[in-house]
Each structure stands twice: as structure tokens, then as C-alpha cells.
Recover the amino acids of this structure.
């Protein structure tokens, strides 16, 4: 039984040591033994399309027209969204957009205002 940590990115159990690094053969991610705790804290950090970290309560701007699934509505480029809430999952921003209502957005389609 291996005592090596699982991969921080894909959770693979097949990690191995390469000098002072851990390596995942499935996704190719490498990390040092000392930075394991720091990287696991950083994986929970949600960033916008420009790489700026987002926090609860931030104001964001949509950078791409987004179709609302199940309706004919569209969230237009430049729409400002105030007071966001960060959540776990694929759509990691929970918000309320004027004229549309409650929505979940992906952080890759927004930028910090």
C-alpha cells in the first residue's frame, strides 16, 4: 500500500516520486513535497477569465454572450453582476441577474469589475 498522496488535480492514486517532486502519470501534474499543502489550498481559489481571484460579494462583468438554457433569454456581453457567491462545482458562481433572475455562471466567462 502506497503512502504517497493522491494527485492534487485529478485525484489519481498512481502518483510516484521523482527526486524531490511528486508526479502524476495520468494528468502529468508535478508538485514538490513542501508545496503540497499550499497547492491544495490554492485549488479552491476561483479565478476569473483574466486570472484575478474572485471572492464572495465581488462585482463581475460577463465577457461573452451566454444563452440561458431552457429559455430564449441571453446574458449579453458587458452585463454587470453584483454581490456574487462562490460555490463548488462546474458552474462556480451563484448570482442574481437583473431581468433574468437567479443563475449559475462559470468563472471562465466573467471578469472582475
Amino acid at each position: 500500500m502506497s503512502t504517497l498522496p493522491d494527485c492534487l488535480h485529478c485525484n489519481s492514486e498512481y502518483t510516484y516520486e521523482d527526486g524531490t517532486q511528486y508526479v502524476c502519470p495520468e494528468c502529468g501534474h508535478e508538485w514538490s513535497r513542501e508545496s503540497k499543502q499550499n497547492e491544495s489550498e490554492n485549488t479552491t481559489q476561483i479565478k476569473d477569465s483574466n486570472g484575478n481571484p474572485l471572492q464572495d460579494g465581488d462585482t463581475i462583468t460577463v465577457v461573452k454572450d451566454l444563452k440561458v438554457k431552457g429559455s430564449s433569454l441571453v446574458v449579453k456581453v458587458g452585463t454587470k453582476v453584483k454581490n456574487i457567491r462562490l460555490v463548488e462545482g462546474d458552474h462556480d458562481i451563484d448570482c442574481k441577474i437583473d431581468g433574468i433572475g437567479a443563475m449559475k455562471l462559470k468563472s471562465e466567462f466573467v471578469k472582475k469589475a
Observations:
- The longest helix spans residues 36-42.
- The radius of gyration is 18 Å.
- Helices lie at 36-42.
- Confidence is low (pLDDT under 50) at residues 37-42.
